[in-house]
Write a structure and sequence with these properties.
DsrE2-like; 158 residues; Hypothetical Protein Ychn, Chain: A; globular; single chain
Length: 158
Amino acid sequence: MENNSSTLVLFSGDLDKAMAGLIIATGAAAMGKQVTMFFTFWGLNVLRKEQYVKTDKTLVERLFEKMMPRGPEKLGVSNMNYGGLGAWMMKKVMKKKNIATLHELMETARELDVKIIACAMSMDVLGITEAELIDGIEYAGVTTYLAATDESNHNLFI
């Protein structure tokens, strides 16, 4: 029996790495593969809602909330970010070349039924609540993700 699924871990909260992950995921889904993306630690920033959501948090959780970018539009690039200048330049070039934005890639992933899982343990560590993340995703631990990798013919860590 042919295995027809792909799994990806998105650990990074960098714009370029998130884009690479979503381009691979949507490409695989467009080829008919079942795709599971597991967003953990800084990768959860991709799933954060852009608007502030009032929640009850500890001091450390509030500090994490303030220090982490809120949503795809606030992500910096992994190299040459220079206080956001690199991300701004990359977005400008992408727009000029009609390349999908991270937000558009996320919408495409959802349209192609890419399974998006937010790591429950990382959410707990960083004090991120379900109310702060985008709608239509799943919340699970690493065992759920590892079960998906057992059925996958490849697994990527970004």
